[in-house]
Amino acid sequence: MKKFNYVLIISIFFSLSLAYGQTDTIRLKDKRLLTSVLKPGLKQYLIYFQTAKAQKTLRFWYWLRDIKTENRNGEKVFTIAQHWYGSDTNSYRKVYSINKAADFAPVYHSETVQNKTSAYNWDNDKINGADSIADNSKKDFSLNFNAPNFNWNLDIETFEMLPLSAGKTFAINFYDAGLDPPKYILYKVTGSETIATLSNEKADCWKLITEGDYAGGHFSQTFWISKKDHEFLKEEDAFNGGYRYKLKMMDAATDLLPRFAK
Fold it and tell me: What confidence tens digit (pLDDT) does each residue in 117-160 have?
C-alpha cells in the first residue's frame, strides 16, 4: 500500500506558496466548504470536444446531475445522481454518490460504465468495495487513507462551495474512487470575467484554474463560477492540442429521465 511522503508534500506546498501566494488547504475537519450554498435540483450540461487530429469533427455528451437532500440514519446527506448520454450506448454512464451535508464527506459512490458497476463504501480513513451491491466489479477493492479526502468525481459541486475570492489558491485532497491514492490538487483564482449565459443574462464569475502534466503532455482546466449564486457555468480544458468545453444549459431544459427511464 502506497503512503504519502508528507515532508515532500509540505515542501511542494511551500514552493507553490512562493509562486502563487497563500495556499488555502481544504480539509474535511476544517469544514471550510460552504455547504449551505449547494442548491438541490437538476442541472444539465452540454459537453463537446475537438482534437487537432480531427478538426472537422465535434464529439458530444449531454450530462445530467441531480442533487437532492435526504436524511439517512438520522443524518442529513446530499445524493447526487449523474447520467451521461452520448451518441451510442457505449457512451452512456450512470454515477450515484452520497455525501454528508455537514462537510461533504463521501459516504458512498458507484459508477456504471458499459454495464460494469463499481461501487464503494467511503469513510474518512478508508474506502472498500460495497459487498451489498450485486455484480460489483470492485467488491474486493480496499484502500486505507492517511487523511480524509473529497470525491474527485464531484469536483464541480466542490468548486461551487469554495470560499472564492481574488488571488486565492486552494489545495484540495481529491480521490478518484478505485484508482491511485488521493493527492492534493491546486486550483488558483486568476481573476474575474463576465460571461453571457444561455438565458441571455450576464454573470460575473470567478475564474478558477488548474494545470499540470499527464501522459507526457501539458493540460489546463478553467472553470467559471458565478459570484452571485456560486454556480458552475462553464469549463474549458486544453490538452494535447485538443479542447473540451462544458456549458450549463438553461433551467428550462427538458428533464430527459422520466421519458425513457426504466
Answer: 999 999 999 999 999 999 999 999 999 999 999 999 999 999 99
Look up the pTM and report it.
Answer: 0.88
> What SS3 string covers 63-76?
EEEEEEEEEECCEE
Q: With a cut of 90, say whether residue 240 has pLDDT above it.
A: no
- Residues 6 or more apart whose CB falls under 8 angstroms from that of 259 comprise none
The whole-number pLDDT of residue 11 equals 41
pLDDT of 261 reads 61
* pLDDT confidence bin for 12, thresholds 50/70/90: very low
d(CA 102, CA 106): 11
Name the residue among 130, 146, 131 with its Cα closest to residue 5: 146
Query: Can you list the pairs that 202-205 forms with residues at least 24 positions away whose Cβ atoms lie under 8 Å?
Result: 203/228, 203/231, 203/233, 204/228, 205/233, 205/234
Q: Which of 163, 159, 168 is nearest to 221 (CA)?
A: 159
| Pairing of the two strands 41-51 and 242-248 | antiparallel
